Amino acid sequence: MPSVTHDDAPPLADLMPWSVAPLRPGRAWPTAPDPASLKARWEALLKAQGPHREALFEPTRARTPRSAVGQLPGRRTGTERLARAEGPCADLVRVLAAPFDEQWLIPDHRLLDTARPELWRVADERQVFVVETGGEAAGQAPVLATSLFPALRTGRIRPLYRRPDGAEPNLAPGLLDHLGARLGERPSPVDVLAWILAAARPDLTVPLSGDAGVWAEGVELGRRMLWLMRRDGERPKLPGGRRPYVRAPLPDRPRTLVYDRAEETLCLDEGRISPVPPRAWDHEVARVRVLEGWFAARTATAEPGTLAAIRPSAWPQSWTSELLELITVLALLAELRPLRADLTMTSPVTSTELRQAGVLPTPSSSHRPASVLDHQEEGPEGQFALL
What we know:
The structure is a single chain. By secondary structure, the chain is of the alpha+beta class. It has two domains: about 10-235 and about 345-380, no CATH class; about 240-335, no CATH class. Helix content is about 30%, strand content about 15%. It has a four-stranded mixed beta sheet with strand order 1-3-2-6. Strands 11-14-13-12 form a four-stranded antiparallel beta sheet, with no helix packed on it. The longest helix is centred in the last third of the chain and has 25 residues, at about 315-340. The radius of gyration is 23 Å and the shape is flat. The two termini are about 45 Å apart.
């Protein structure tokens, strides 16, 4: 945890004022670790008729096959009631389904109880979502950052930008100018995000520094964390002797996941992957060990006859590649924890200072979504939505 010398650090909620509650899907089957299963589930749903389709859908108070629902912003899907829907599955999107767990989602508003359209409106290749994870373990950052649409159900979600194309940062108005005056150079929105990753405390306060040297150190550390969390561009790698490899072939349907700490080996039944550093295995988010959660999402037993039971008949090679990369990411993040702990604050920029400068409190408008409608959105039954 970053060292601090004061108790007047601004809360994350003041620095990034617009936040959205997590997605509430209402049913698990529209999300899966492999795209083929989702397309097969959609086909199975449409082949079913009447009460059987309704049972497969798994209705809730918020959604049934008869619900009238418009399209998700930016997604082309049918808007007729699902009870009589026909046609292909919507184009799947890659989402962050759980901490460090990238899966696929059918982005159809009719399938999701609470889809958070305001997030879909600002989701693009430049957006970064900050997700509160509800606590910190072993020096880890209490937030995650992702370029994927955040479909996980931990804490509140704070987009870095309030509009598409990286327009209008979701930062307290005047914050960048005030930090620029203190630091001698105006930081970018990504610099502030990087600092948040490096310096945020378990209570979601973020000590700020007006010392240019400390600031540069924190931003460099946070950008490394951001790169590992987003996993875009060049893929992360460990040095040759430390890279995890498959030492014994993984079975077609592994049932158990066991860690041998003495051998630094991850055992999937008789399959073996090593080396797996202990701190990678021990990495937890919201009191759930990341590797165990990732494995359970791919192997947990589904109720027979449900759409969730439609899944690969054997362990895909792509999952092995994803697992090796996940181990690498967790190991590299573990190496950064001591640097977070050593990040000592000097020349603090306090909440009191920000209030005196007029940066805080933030205006009520900054807590609400921006108006980003540059096209009509289709509502239920093909009608254009009135927004």
